[in-house]
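Support request, please re-run this one:
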Amino acid sequence: MGNRFSCKKIDGSTSSRRFGGGNRSRRKLQADEELLHIQALSLAIQHHQSSQRFEGSMSRRIGSVSSRRRSNPVSDPVVDAGKQQKLSAEFLENLETKNIVLIHGEGFGAWCWYKTISLLEETGMIPTALDLTGSGIDLKDTNNVTTLEEYSKPLIDYLQDLQEDEKVILVGHSSGGACVSYAMEQFPQKISKAVFLCGTMVSNGQKPFDVFAEQLGSAELFMKESKFLIHGNGNDKPATGFMFEKQQMRGLYFNQSPAKDIALAMVSMRPIPLGPMMQNLSLSKEKYEAGRRFYIQTLEDHALSPDIQEKLVRENPPEGVFKIKGSDHCPFFSKPQSLHKILLEIAQIA
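Re-run finished. Output below.
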């Protein structure tokens, strides 16, 4: 489930109605929270009428996508549940695809998308979150994952198994963007849109690590001097992976995230295979560059700064750019509703 909402009326005033000995019943509390959640969800579904802020999100489009204004402000009274279902059905009917495949970033796993999955399912979308090789609950030893091809194999297998005329929207977080780029080169006909979420949207000949070089140092320097390197095959052998210390991860990834999500990450993060991060990608104009790419920037990001993200979209322009205000490197934790709204907006762009 996404963000929980406090038990307040839509106009912001608190309710003073009491039961029994002065305490509101648990059932009433749950009903109020559920109603507020449905109301907020209704606003998200109306995204195709809006380019205004929603829980801190902003959108800026480049290329052929036009800008539109919402006819009703966010604080307006919202539709009832029946109207919400009607909007949802109309919205889904006009989509090229309802299938959204979520690809995690370095050290993460499918588990990090739990809020996004819940929100997408409630609108009738069909989300799928994958564990890349050696990530999440995948049993492969991270130290033995040496290439981007092997790291991306679960995604490639998924795309291979799709029906011939079936398409999906790919969403790649952080270094998972490189896996999305690789997949676009392999199966361009099966990818309706590619979304890079503060991701490594590299150009031809670049490696995923290059995107982080301004903050972590050059690849050569990192390989020689980083204290976060893991030598899984022995100290006299080349490094096989790396993993930041917990305090380092908190500052880089989770500076705006809720404490409970940080706790989840601390017990779930796994070492990052080094080989895929250091591999140059071969991306063609006919496949990768011809695909529909969108970028979501995170404006309070300490792992991939807003300036670096801006440089990425300037040097390798996508079809559209969206920004989430107040988000760290993990908007699926810190700004799930904003991320959800933008994903729906991208899904409905013709």
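Residues 100 and 127 are 5 Å apart (CA to CA). The first helix runs from residue 26 to 45.
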